[in-house]
Structure prediction request, 246 residues.
Amino acid sequence: MEKVKLSIQRSEPSAGVPVRYDQFEVPYEEGMVVLDAVHYVENNSDPTLAVRWNCKAARCGSCSAEINGKPRLMCKTRVDDLGENIKIEPMRAYPVVKDLVTDVSHNYEIAKKIPPFTPSPEMHSPYTIQQIDITRSKEFRTCIECFLCQDVCHVVREHHSDYYGPKHVVKIAALDLHPADCIDRSEVLYKQGGLGFCDITKCCQEVCPEEIKITDNAIIPEKERIVDHVYDPIGLLVKAVKRRKW
Ligand code: SF4
Ligand code: SF4
Ligand code: FES
Prediction:
């Protein structure tokens, strides 16, 4: 392959610039990733192209986009895995600011609603934590907040305000697994977080660049916790008795 043909979605809704696709040809170099090709366009063909990136090492989670229709990191997607023709579009779940840059601030609003780490009054810092507890939650703490799982989720795409989304379930699962934490977040996740809308399609798990088993290890256990805490009749009876003042 000598050249890469890029088709890049361009638009700027706030300035009334409608969606169009611009075509660019970029010389291929061995080991090239999609972000390299986009940088070539910025530096040599069109400096007005808007793209968000920071680390170019799959660490910061900034360069998320739809590449040939699939949510991926531009800096982790090799050109030679895609072939000569590459279509690059912004994430579909979020409003476009300009070209490939989307407004993901909705996620920061959700993050504010999640009860933070709250240590049990009996536990005192520094906490003594068993290795097994660290291992269980470590997977969730590798999240780079790229929002690709949010982008691919059909519930997030269609019912933005009803479901927090898989990235936030991962965050909640990490907090719930902390042995010093004493908050029960299952009601928040069930009532405000809309976890009931998730139908366990596992699409989010398939696109995660950190290979977090989002559905298997975060969503399904959180759903089970909700069943225990919200529906279990014996548990509800015990809670009611404990609340009753004799
Ligand atoms: S498993 Fe749930 S959160 Fe993940 S993509 Fe499917 S509906 Fe969305
Ligand atoms: S869970 Fe995976 S896909 Fe979702 S934001 Fe974190 S790193 Fe990205
Ligand atoms: S530029 Fe940081 S994840 Fe791609």
User: Anything to note?
Assistant: Residues 152-153, 155, 166, 198-204, 215, 219 surround iron/sulfur cluster (ligand 1) (CB under 6 Å). The chain is about 35% helix and 15% strand. The first strand starts at residue 3 and ends at 12.
